[in-house]
Design goal:
single chain, 490 residues, alpha/beta, eight-stranded mixed beta sheet, four-stranded antiparallel beta sheet, 13 helices, 16 strands, disordered N terminus
Length: 490
Amino acid sequence: MVLAIKNILFITFISFVFFSCEKSSEQKAPNILFISIDDLRTELGVYGNKIIKTPNLDQLASEGTAFSNHFVQVPTCGASRHSLLTGLRPRTKAQLKNSVIVTETSTKPEGIIPESFIHHLKRNGYYTVGIGKISHSADGLVYGYEEQPSNKRELPYSWDELHFDAGKWETGWNSFFAYADGENRQSMKRQVKPYEAGNVDDDGYPDGLTTKLAVSKLKDLKNKSQPFFLGVGFFKPHLPFNAPKKYWNLYKREEIPISDNSKIPQNISLSSLHNSGEFNGYQLGEEMAGLNQPVSNDYARKITHAYYAAVSYIDAQVGVLIEEVRNLGLENNTVIIVWGDHGWHLGDQQVWGKHTLFENALNSALIIKIPGKKPSKNVNKTIVETVDIYPTILELSNIKAPYQLDGSSLIPLINKYETKKVAYSYFRDGISLRTSRYRLTKYFRKQQPTIELYDHLNDSLETKNIAQENPELVNKLMPLLELGNTGLYN
């Protein structure tokens, strides 16, 4: 009898060990911390800038992969984010506008096709939380810059939770254009400067409040039985370039570089550029920018200083989030992705702003850290696109795509550099193709020239359009560009 009891206990113990080991060996789907940063070009230490102070983003890249040749589909916030969320290149001119998510997503009933990859994750077992600017709206709600927030979401079905702390600015859009004293661009009727060094701590601007919210939510999400997707959207370095003074003090103004290419490129139509209207909308700026006359070197250095300070401020916020992931013991099962929604001309081609099909407006930061996966190189030069992020997230979470996506997963590239990939971008009645060596842009307009070609091996700053003198090369590349015409220009 005693022997029988011992045998039963032994079998019970072995069964417990077996099933416990079997359960522990099952890999839980990874959590995903997705950090969106507005207007963040590849202006980080990891990308080779030796002046800018971005220790936290650089450290993240040292543990993961920074893609130096990541290009957005559209160089404006809302349309770029639409391509991110859907994994699709634009197919209509409406999809080139900031309003696209409102007009094509927020008004539709829930259907078989998910409204975003976040929605798809939610349908497949993820708990989804959004804080800040992930879609186009500053807080994810649909309303105008000077209106009171509505209850209508830009992404009605994507979020289990959607949060934002507007602080003393009261609304998301006021926060987006916030100054330290509680005013904003709208309340001041644009009688403001495009920069500010605030005598405040990190919480003295909205992005600091977003960080506090995200830290608090991470603590809650740790205890969830299901994997989570946490999207955190930071405003800076979007205009106005406002940041706590301590981040300005990281720099000596005289050491701040100005653009190596501050002149209008040769052999182009001015229609390919613009007069920096968004920048000039901050009407108390000391100088106005334009194609008729560049700003002074001193002012260019001052504005670049402001941009750098704003980037360093956000770098600090990212550092706080990453540290909290570690403190909570989430590091070993949390993918971290940092994405800039497009680039920005810091006086390049005599432009201050985005909204062009030149490299500076299309090239933005992309960093991916996958726990347990150490890449052979931390900076990957492969040409990649924003539409590649959707399939990458699906592969990481082992979820099938709901429809044919335009991009491809970046996971195979983490350990290698691929030269055959290309990127397509769209804006200003044009399509731009980027290969590992060339940028070819075709404009569907009357103003000549309508074809621009830049050789990045010999002219990485895109100073001279060489299309006219290289017709054979243009003809060779044109079929590849036409493959990127999704029906947008027919």
